[in-house]
Specification:
45 strands, 10-stranded parallel beta sheet, 579 residues, 5 helices, 21-stranded parallel beta sheet
Length: 579
């Protein structure tokens, strides 16, 4: 480099020196280690730091109760950490800090108003400042509620009701969240026999944002007109309330066995969220989002979302003007009325890559994907999902319905659709399911515009109106294995020897591996699974084994109907118990 090309004046040098000095200054951050044997109390006085005391310490910016920062020179700041050694942390201090006010309780047309106080001294652990919560691994560090305690609640609530500005970034890693719950409260009758006001609270295990709302439910109205905002969430059309900005990151977290009599049986978020290498399973919601209810820009990678139940979006429910990126993820065994695996609403955009939707149920339509929001699918496998509707146009794998506003489109590229059926009824055995008509694609009403970007494969003719590219394959047997552990972090459907999906895809510079992390060949295979060229011509193909979906001969695993019936039985019990 010539001397003339590199000049620094004194002000620049001084500025760099100041920045270097600032960068060298220690960032204030406290590290608190909690004790799983500590009593769950705001100030226990037992000489052991409880998880509740640790959260209160972070919120206060000072030691609370028996918690002391690990090193004497540490100070609370903006990057505090709560370290959770292996053990079971049981919450026992019940209480609810969301309620309502009603200026005219005897007036059926007067709408009560929700009132929220962020109080971590009881009930859920209200996080009001940025913090990292680090466990010893989800199998070792378990956070749960004692559900026999009156006022047992969700586990974490990331929200500061008093804040008008600021940023709260919460990261949780290496823990299991289980046995969290929220209950609805009946407030008063509406102005007709079918209407009732409820206080509903969202997020069975974890909630970000207000996560509580007063709703007027009219049991005579069905569909989306009676779904938005009914589960303790804000309606997408409502203006944003002033307050802090929140983000949530979940890494290596298991969210299992939680329930909400509202939205988000496992997780509810009204903020940006990142989920990686996690499991969201066996959660239930009275309304939408059995596993996850999402109202923010979100990324979900290398994650399993399975066996969750809800009215809409058994696995994931997405709404608002947000973008949701899902990659390397399997959604299986989830149950809902619409959108067994995924339900998306107008205004949002789904980008689904290297992922599998398998063995989900939509008792109406869209057992795999049900959307009137925009969706972009690339290298996706949608297989063996079951829809209850039997109308000629109904779809089980993908079902689109008209957007109420805006312009929504669905784009398909390198998508494999196989063995998705409609006309399913609870109690059907494997033989009856196998005899059902195939319905990989379908629509409600006029649907949405669906565009093929080529190199898709459908096992039936239901997608013919969509798959019009010359490279699309229609009404061909894809020859896939059962949903099984074929390597990688999630279950997949392997391509068997001789599958027409082998080397029939289109290369995409942005997708260099398959769902398991195996490098994509050129040309790649269609769907979420890639077979290396050495194995494409012989041997056992890409693998496959016992699973809950389909074998190479297109037959269903006989254990599937029992599994689905059990899931619906739980769903039915939950709905009845909420009435």
């Amino acid at each position: 480099m010539k001397h003339a090309e590199f000049k620094l004046n004194r002000k620049a040098i001084l500025g760099m020196a100041v920045l270097a000095a600032i960068g060298a200054m220690p960032v204030q951050a406290a590290t608190i280690t909690v004790d799983p044997t500590a009593a769950d109390a705001a100030v226990a006085g037992d000489g052991k730091c409880s998880l509740r005391e640790a959260v209160l310490s972070v919120n206060a910016g000072a030691n609370v109760g028996d918690c002391v920062a690990n090193i004497a020179t540490e100070a609370y700041g903006i990057n505090d950490t709560i370290t959770m050694p292996a053990g079971i942390y049981t919450l026992t201090l019940g209480g609810v800090d969301e309620t309502y006010t009603d200026s005219l309780p005897a007036e059926p047309t007067n709408f009560p108003v929700v009132a929220i106080t962020s109080d971590a001294t009881m009930g859920d652990l209200d996080i009001r400042k940025s913090v990292r919560i680090v466990g010893a691994g989800a199998a070792a560090t378990i956070i749960q509620w004692d559900t026999t305690v009156p006022g047992a609640d969700r586990i974490f609530h990331v929200y500061d009701a008093a804040a008008t500005t600021g940023t709260v970034d919460v990261s949780i890693q290496g823990v299991t969240l289980t046995k969290g719950q929220t209950f609805q409260t009946s407030i008063k009758p509406g102005d007709s026999a079918t209407k009732t006001y409820y206080l509903r609270r969202a997020g069975g295990a974890l909630a970000v944002g207000p996560a509580a709302n007063v709703v007027l439910v009219d049991t005579s109205v069905t569909g989306t007109a009676n779904s938005e905002g009914r589960g303790g969430s804000q309606k997408p059309t409502d203006p944003e309330a002033p307050g802090a900005t929140y983000t949530l990151t979940l890494t290596g977290v298991i969210v299992d066995g939680n329930a909400a009599q509202g939205d988000g049986g496992g997780v509810y978020t009204a903020s940006a969220m990142t989920v990686a290498s996690s499991i969201v399973s066996n959660n239930s919601a009275l309304t939408n989002g059995g596993g996850i209810y999402n109202e923010g820009n979100t990324s979900i990678t290398d994650t399993t979302v399975s066996n969750n139940t809800a009215e809409g979006g058994g696995g994931v429910f997405m709404t608002g003007s947000n973008t949701v990126n899902i990659s390397g993820t399997t959604l299986s065994g989830n149950v809902a009325v619409g959108g067994g695996a995924i339900s998306g609403r107008a205004g949002m955009t789904l980008k689904l890559v290297n992922s599998t939707l398998s063995g989900n149920i939509g008792s109406d339509v869209g057992a795999g994907l049900y959307t009137n929001g925009s969706a972009q699918l690339n290298f996706v496998t949608i297989a063996m999902n079951l829809a209850g509707a039997d109308s000629p146009a109904a779809g089980s794998g993908i079902n689109v319905f008209p957007a109420t506003s805006g312009t929504s489109t669905v784009t398909l590229k390198n998508v494999l659709l196989a063995g998705n059926k409609k006309g399913w009824l609870e109690g059907m055995d494997a033989a009856a399911i196998a005899a059902l008509p195939s319905a990989n694609c379908g629509l409600t009403g006029s649907g949405l515009p669906v565009t093929s970007s080529g190199n898709n494969l459908s096992s039936d003719a239901s997608c013919d109106a969509w798959l019009i590219a010359a490279t699309d394959l229609k009404s061909v047997d894809p020859m896939i294995g059962d949903l099984a552990d074929n390597g990688g972090p999630t279950l997949t459907h392997a391509l068997l020897v001789g599958s027409p999906a082998l080397s029939a895809g289109a290369a995409d510079a942005s997708v260099t591996t398959d769902q398991r992390g195996v490098p994509r060949e050129t040309p790649p295979d269609i769907g979420a699974f890639e077979v290396d060229n050495i194995n494409e011509g012989g041997g056992d193909g890409g693998g496959g084994g016992g699973g809950c979906a389909i074998g190479g001969n297109g037959s269903f695993d006989p254990t599937l109907p029992g599994m689905l019936a059990a899931a619906l039985a739980v769903f039915g019990w939950r709905r009845r118990s909420a009435k």
